[in-house]
Structure formats: C-alpha cells, structure tokens
Here is the input.
Amino acid sequence: MTYADKYEMVCGVETHVEMATKTKIFCGCSTEFGGEQNTHVCPVCLGLPGVLPVLNREVVNLAIKAGLALNCEIADFSKFDRKNYYYPDLPKNYQTSQYDLPICKNGWLEISVDESKKRIGITRAHMEEDAGKLVHSGETITTSHSSGVDYNRTGVPLLEIVSEPDMRSIEEVLAYLEELVQIMEYAGISDCKMEQGSVRFDVNVSLRLKGRSKFGTRTETKNLNSFNSVRRCLEYELERQADILDEGGTIAQETRTWDEGKGMTLSLRSKEEAHDYRYFPEPDLVPLVIDRDWVEGIRAAMPELPSAKRLRLQSLGLSEYDAKVITSSKTMADYFDKALEKYHDAKTLANWVMGDLSGLLKANSCSFEDSPVTPVQLAGLLSLIQKGEISGKIGKTVIEEIYKTGKDSEIIVKEKGLIQISDEGALEKIMEEIISANPKSVADYQAGKENAIGFLVGQMMKATKGQANPGLVNKMLKERLSQ
Amino acid sequence: MKISRSEVEHAALLARLQLTEEEMNQYTEQLNSILEHAAMLDQIDTGNVSPTAHAVQLYNVLRDDVAQPSLDQEKVLQNAPAAEQGFFRVPRIV
Here is the structure.
C-alpha cells in the first residue's frame, strides 16, 4: 500500500534561480562560477563597515522579464528588506531580500500531465542575494569541528519564485519544475546549470485524507538541487508522513534536509526553533518605481517561450511528443530552428535531430551547441535526400562522415561515390541476378504474398551498398514480376 | 508595559547577547521607556498615509552590469580571525 491509496498530497515549491548577470546584485564583483575561493569579493559583498550597495539594473530587468514570462503582475512600487539571521554564509548577518513588496506576484504557468493541462499558481517572485558556500571539515555539518567559508557566491543575484500549493502528485511537481526551469532558460533569466547549483528547490508538502478540504501539517525540505532529488525526496517524505498518520500520530511542522547518500529527509529545526527574521526595510537601498514603459519595453523583447515554441512546432506537423522532446533542451530547439531556416520539412528534420544526430552527440558526450554537424550541414544533407540524390540509408553514413570530418555532404557524397543509382539500365542487371538467386521469394510474391517484395528490395539495396533508389527498385521489381 | 521580560530575553537570544539578570531588568525598563515615548506616534491618524519605504525621496538608483575589480584573496582574509587555504575558518556551526 502506498500513501496515494488513502491520502492526497498537497505541494508547493520555492525555487531559487541564479540570474544570468555578469556582476553581483549590489556590487561589481564577477558572478562567474568556479573561481578560486574568496577572489570574487569586495568590501560591499563582504559586508565591511561603511560600504553601500547599489542595485544592478540588469537584475531588475531580468526579474521583470521572469515575471512577464510567468504571467505575473509587475509591481509599480517595490523595495528591498533585510532578513536577519546569524549564519556564517552571510557576512552581514542579514540577507538583502524582498518581503512585503516583491517585484512580481499573482502569476501562473501551465503544466501537462497525462495529456491533461493544469495551471499552477505563482504566488510571488522576488529578488535577493545568494549566500556564500560552506565547506565542512568533517563528513557532515554535524560532525565537523570547523567549516571553511567561500564568499564568491555571496551577492550573486537570485530570483526566488514561490508557487501556490497547487500540486497534487509527484508527476505534477516534476512537470512544474521542468516547465519553470525551461521558461527561465528560454527567457534568458538564468543559464539553469543545475550541476553548478544555479537552480535550487525548497519543497513544502503535506498529506490529507482523500476528500478532505483542510490542508494537513506540512514539512519543508530545503536545498534540493536536481529534479531527481526532488522526486526521491518526495517519495521518501510522503511515505514517512503517511506512516506517522496511519499510526495516529501528528506531523511536526518543521524544516528538513535531504540526505542524498542515505536517501532520506532529516529534521533540521522545528517550528518552535524557527527563525524570527525580523524583516525591516533596507535603509541602504532606495525603492524602485517601475513604470509601464519599462515593463512594455521588456515585454516587446521577450523571446519565444517553450509553450509557444511547442505549439509552433506542432503547427508545422510535429506530434505533441516530438515537439516536447525538441523543446526539452533550449540548445536542441535552437539547433532545430536554425536548420529549419534551410530545410523546411519539419517532421523529417525532427526525426534526424532526435534520432541520428542526438545519438551521435550522446555517444560523443557533445552538446547541440558544439555539434560538429552544423544546422546548415544537416539541412544540406536532408536536401540531398529530398532531391533523391542519395537514399536515407546512405544519409546515415554521410552524417557520420560530416561528424568526423566536418565536410559538407555534397563533398562526401562525391568523394565516396555515394550518389544514388536512379538509372534503370544500371539496376536491371543486378535485378536479374537477385531474381534468379531468390526463386522462393519470387514464387511467394507471385502467389500473392506482397510482403515478399520487401526482401527482394532489401537484397537489391544490399547489392548496391545502399545506393540504389529504393522507390525505383520497388517499382522495377513489381513490373518485372507481374510480367 | 510595552514589552515583556520574556520578549527581551527572546530579542537577546536572537541578537546573540548573553545578559546578566541585572542587565535584563535594566534593558527591559529602558526598552519600555523608549517604546512608550515612541507610542506618541499612535495618536496621529495615518489612515490615509501610505507606508514610508525610505526616508529619502529618491527612487531607482541603479548601476550598469559592468564588472569592477575584486579584492586580492590576501586582502580579503587580512582581518579574518582564522583562515585556511583561502577560506575563512569558522567554528562548528550546529
């Protein structure tokens, strides 16, 4: 028995997205990932006495853009607040964040699970600064005798996106996260490099008996950094809560942490110990007044978002599934669009991008961005097939050659003599040989087994090393055998 | 009384202040007289006044997203009570 037989889950997610700026939110230090520890810091992000933060305009632009992409209202008036707590990853002992006047609120995004669509509400999205990174000397935070602190990440701009508690299954949660991350990537809000911690999730979840309207007591598990961790964490946490409820117990409202190695959530602090953040307006930063021109200027420059792209691809003849696969990665979608400019059969192009090309790239651990087969080269190859100069089968050999050599398909076809044989005279002799070598298939076909011709076509293709025009071979065989 | 002794204790805990009995009494008394003085403001009708977000009437002070030099690591760690291999070293956290 699982929790789902008896209970319904209620889940909301807070997502932290690192915004793709060159510099930090309040100072000119670089946001580049992977610098030597404590080399991207200055008096402002170190919180030295007497310094003053100045807000990065690009952070506001990106936050407005994210809000628009998530169908939010953009505030006319917004301000920053101090969130006070003591933890060594924050050199100032407070995080500059937004409390009661966030820049974006009341939005939504649409997810699709098992072919049914659902809107997930976005409560708010606000700007804040990231904290530093702690390196613990012991195996875990609780067994360390001391910790090292690197403040390079301190002050990197974050957008915190808070969803409504609208999700009712793990599938819905994952669909929401995938759609959200895709929107952030397409809109250029963040590079969304999950492996670098550019996106982190806090998951709030509770159970209630099916049919009840009142929410149960929730727990919050913080700092999950991959879709897979979210899935595993929810699977664990829901069973844990169900076990407690089944035994007549009550869920403690608390903050928990996910232990990736052990595959379980652990209590971090209870509600009683919960932080009292004592928010107050940040006196070092003046408020923002955002006029409609500013917002409309950003709206006008909004790139095509994943949902619109999927619809466009479907209108070009792709199935919903194919459109979803192509848009699942922005680099794949960008590649597809570039090739589509030169080759207009979207369905065939999609098959090659998702099939042969994806296979080649995967086998070589290469991304679409760095593909040795350029979009123009792939379009050129598909045009040759379309014109009948080479067969689709030969095309598979040619794409591998392009991948290896970087040469255009015309050159490869010429050099290797791969041009399709569409000359009946040249094929006739081979056909006669195949017919006399395969009397059984010939007899089968003539006895009415139409499928038998497929074998004979295959033999012809094999004899010509794939160069024969398969359509022509089919036609010639049919004519010859019906004589 | 505007603020109880237990609230003062809580505030001291949040501020990581270890106070003696005597200090606790003294601060409770002092904080109360400050809060009572500030309570004068409650007499003003602010029904039609929007909350003040900042004392200075200034908006949209922004900078361009252009990198400036950071400090050398050596300088960064110069005032650190303890440092190791480029990190600030802090005592066990939890």
Remarks:
- Chain A has three domains: 3-294, 304-415, 424-481.
- The first helix of chain A runs from residue 3 to 6.
- The mean pLDDT of chain A is 92.
- The first strand of chain A starts at residue 7 and ends at 18.
